[in-house]
Specification:
The complex is a heterodimer. Chain A is α+β, with helices and mostly antiparallel strands. Chain A has helices at residues 2-13, 19-28, 37-59, 71-82, 84-102, 115-191, 209-215, 227-233, 239-252, 298-331, 337-360, 368-375, 398-417, 462-475; strands at residues 194-199, 204-207, 224-226, 255-263, 270-281, 287-296, 366-367, 387-391, 395-396, 427-435, 441-449, 478-484, 487-495. Chain A is 56% helix and 17% strand. In chain A, the strands form three sheets. Chain A has a six-stranded antiparallel beta sheet with strand order 3-2-1-6-5-4, sandwiched between helices. In chain A, strands 8-10-11-13-12 form a five-stranded mixed beta sheet, with helices on one face. In chain A, helix 1 packs antiparallel against helix 6 (115-191), helix 3 (37-59) runs parallel beside helix 5 (84-102) and helix 4 (71-82) runs parallel beside helix 6 (115-191). In chain B, strands 2-1-3-6-7 form a five-stranded parallel beta sheet, with helices on both faces. The chains are: A alpha+beta, B alpha/beta. The interface between A and B is medium-sized, with 25 and 24 residues.
Chain lengths: 505, 117
């Protein structure tokens, strides 16, 4: 359609080269302005002179009368070509020449007897001039209108073309915007980022679906919430500061990044969020709206605080462990250096085994089975045959790991030296279980059978300190050691809270 | 008169070291108490002249004991595996000794806290 219109307007603007077209254009431009005033005057005089000469030449061939025969065409032609003013001049000159030379009596400007002839001349010439002048005014008017309509058509075409360009541009922009909108939506959805917009004039906040999910609130029909409702979800300790920062961002029409806590609407759980927002000003330079994002960084925060906790714990435990090692060194005996070193190294390895498990579990509870197997590693081939283990899975706290770990080490070392593991057929039964109506008592028993006959030790060594006072103090436990001749047995009873890892500690 | 020292320490061997050190230096020992609850009960039942406190007791801190000592005007020494900057300000007001403990330093600090001897 566009090309059709262009082709049409092309013909209209292009020059019509046919004869009739040229004549039309020539007539359209009359009276001619192309000659200057002097040339037009000269041409007027020339046409009048030509008419005079032609009248003289025709005089003999003509019957008497017809004084104006050649002058009428001259006046009409002049008026037609150069307009009413020069037409009138031509009429005057031609009239005078005809009056003097061609109306009897000739060679005079006598009026008598010539009134009718002169009157006729004036009437015809005046009528011609009036008609020609009128036609030329109409012609001029017509030309102006044609030019005007041609300009209008051009202007209209220009407007249509510009409109089409704008429509195309806008469509492209809308397409790009829609595409970018879809991309943004996808990206924010994937990353779990909530988008919000706050109209500061109406105090209305618009949330996308992710925002409602982050805050644990059912989405409203139009996605809008009040600013006060938003602040109500922010943790009471953080709300005043968040309000202050947001209002400052609005006042300065700036940007801000905030980390804060919220209480989710559904389960009331506390989550850490990071928000970034940008203020945008209206024409008056004042903030009109804020647009921002929210991201749940709870997991990241938890990791950070866990790492901080671990660093503090490692520092603290390392110092404590050194103190324990010093103390163990002081209390370890041996008849010679080699025996001392063997006993000392075994105790350090027992401590180290417990540490390995704690580090592996990041101090969040060590499985009691794993701990016991680690402490019995020297006798692992006997487990299930001469060492019988039974008990439920429990996650031990770090203090219980050290107390129970060292105790098992001393018990099995003693059994290897003097007890059930010092012959070929002795057995050890190690059992632990929960007792009490609320299963709140932890009981652990170590029973040796079929070993060599037992005699009670005469002095208190490091081993019996560990299996006695240490574990008693460390776990606030009741501990009983029985050196019955048939076999050594040991029993520990304490509150379950002393040994298991407490949630949240 | 023998000065009585309350010992609050949950690590058995360290507590034994402290007790040995204090006994050797001629002090009378109260405790050792491995938990805040036991330390507060001990403090309630038997008067003492000074105290030696570990900071981290199992899953709690000894801050309540610090406050109870403060209320009674009893001076104390902090003996900890933590570095001083990890501690709350109520504790750093007192002398802070780090583990492993050096017996002479501990005894010297105690004597500084006890003006009468």
């Amino acid at each position: 359609m566009a090309s059709e219109q262009q082709a049409e307007s092309g013909t209209e603007r292009g020059r019509d080269r046919s004869v009739s077209g040229r004549v039309t254009r020539w007539i359209e431009n009359l009276p001619s302005q192309r000659l200057g005033r002097t040339s037009a005057l000269a041409a007027t005089l020339g046409i009048a002179g030509a008419a005079w000469l032609l009248r003289i030449a025709l005089d003999d061939a003509l019957p008497p009368g017809f004084p104006y025969l050649t002058f009428f065409p001259a006046v009409v032609l002049t008026a037609f070509m150069f307009g009413a003013r020069l037409g009138s001049l031509s009429a005057l000159l031609c009239g005078l020449v005809a009056w003097y030379f061609f109306i009897h009596p000739t060679q005079s400007f006598n009026l008598a007897g010539k009134e009718v002839a002169l009157g006729l001349y004036v009437f015809v010439v005046a009528t011609d001039l009036a008609l020609i002048h009128g036609m030329q005014i109409a012609n001029r008017q017509l030309r102006k209108e044609r030019e005007l309509s041609r300009d209008l058509a051009d202007a209209k075409e220009q407007v249509v073309r510009e409109l089409q360009q704008q429509v195309t541009k806008r469509k492209l922009a809308v397409d790009a915007l829609r595409e970018s909108d879809v991309k943004t939506h996808l990206a924010t959805r994937t990353a779990g980022i909530g988008l919000w917009q706050w109209n500061t004039g109406t105090d209305e906040v618009r949330w996308d679906d992710t925002m409602f999910e982050l805050y644990g609130m059912p989405p409203t029909a139009d996605g809008s919430v009040n600013y006060s409702d938003y602040l109500a979800r922010v943790h009471p300790e953080d709300a005043p500061e968040q309000d202050r920062i947001l209002r400052e961002t609005v006042r300065n029409c700036s940007e801000s990044t905030r980390d804060f806590r919220i209480k989710r609407g559904d389960d009331g759980s506390v989550r850490h969020l990071r928000a970034v927002e940008v203020a945008r000003a209206g024409l008056d330079g004042k903030t009109e709206w804020l647009v921002g994002t929210n991201l749940d960084i709870t997991d990241q925060k938890n990791r950070e605080s866990h790492v901080q906790m671990l660093l503090g714990e490692i520092n603290h435990r390392a110092k404590n462990l050194l103190a324990v090692v010093l103390s163990v060194a002081k209390r370890t005996h041996g008849t010679n250096h080699a025996e001392f070193m063997a006993n000392f190294a075994a105790r350090i390895q027992s401590l180290a085994a417990g540490q390995d498990l704690l580090v592996e579990k990041e101090w969040r509870g060590v499985n009691i089975h794993e701990l016991i197997r680690a402490q019995l590693s020297h006798y692992k081939d006997l487990i299930g045959r001469r060492i019988l283990l039974s008990g439920e899975d429990l996650a031990l706290s770090s203090s219980a790991v050290q107390a129970i770990g060292m105790t098992i080490h001393e018990l099995v070392t003693n059994a290897g030296k003097y007890g059930a593991l010092s012959n070929d057929c002795g057995r050890i039964t190690l059992n632990w279980h929960l007792e009490g109506a609320a299963s709140d008592r932890f009981v652990m028993t170590w029973v040796e059978t079929d070993g060599p006959p037992v005699t009670a030790p005469t002095r208190t060594g490091f081993g019996s300190t560990v299996t006695g006072d240490m574990v008693r103090a460390g776990l606030d436990a009741e501990v009983k050691s029985d050196f019955a001749p048939s076999g050594f047995s040991w029993k520990l009873t304490c509150a379950i809270n002393e040994v298991i890892e407490q949630a949240g500690s | 008169m023998t000065a009585r020292i309350l010992v609050v320490e949950d690590e058995f061997f360290i507590a034994q070291e402290i007790v040995d050190t204090l006994n050797h230096a001629g002090f009378e020992v109260l405790g050792p108490c491995p938990t805040v609850a036991k330390a507060l009960v001990q403090l309630e039942n038997t008067p003492c002249d000074a105290a030696i406190l570990d900071v981290s007791l199992r899953n709690e801190t000894s801050l309540p004991v610090v406050q109870a000592l403060g209320n009674r005007g009893i001076p104390f020494v902090i003996l900890t595996g933590f570095s001083a900057r990890q501690l709350p300000s109520e504790m750093t007001a007192a002398p802070v000794l780090t583990k492993p403990m050096q017996a002479e330093v501990l005894i010297r600090e105690l004597h500084k806290l006890l003006p009468n001897d």
